[in-house]
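User: I'll paste a sequence; please echo it back and then give the predicted structure.

Assistant: Echoing your sequence first, then the prediction.
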Amino acid sequence: MGWLYMEKKLLIAARSKGKFPEIIALLEDLPFHFLNLRDIPELPDNFEVEEPAMTFEGNAIIKAMTLGKRTGLLTLAEDAGLEVDALDGRPGVYSTRYAPGTDMDRCMKLLSELEGVPEGKRTARYRAVAVIYDPENDMVRTCEGSVEGSITKEPKGMNGFGYDPIFFSPKFNKTLAEITLEEKNSVSHRGEAIRKAREILEKDFLK
């Protein structure tokens, strides 16, 4: 590869202020130099990879391959979202663009759509797919994770991002926004997917 052991670079295909720290927290002791999209000078500040696929896996693969080929870097991309059973799986792949505005705007739209739905019918899951793309051999590896929970009737907590303030974790008896990052990573969809990706990175890229 031409890199010294301690100089391996890994591009985390994230600009989100919430997603990048969650991923890094699970990988930080690995001997990589971690970069996010803000660290790539040739990418404009407003650069976004279009995500036209109808699955999390499809969007994550598009993101990883697009950025890996453009930068020449080993790239880890992830796509995730919330699936609510009472809404036939919505918002799904549209989770981050379910409503204009902030994360809380999207939470409030979801709560309004669930108005009148009783507690036992508010089941939901977060689902994530992480993809590692190696531009040196054009290989793609995928890892999945999910966590079951339910949607609360009002937001609670100030941590996390996305729909965390309304996603109730049975294990902690709290929303994901009421627990620490370490606790969240121990149960979350993203934590599960990134732990699997970590095993691939250790096995295939740190020998």
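The mean pLDDT is 91. The two ends are 11 Å apart (CA to CA).
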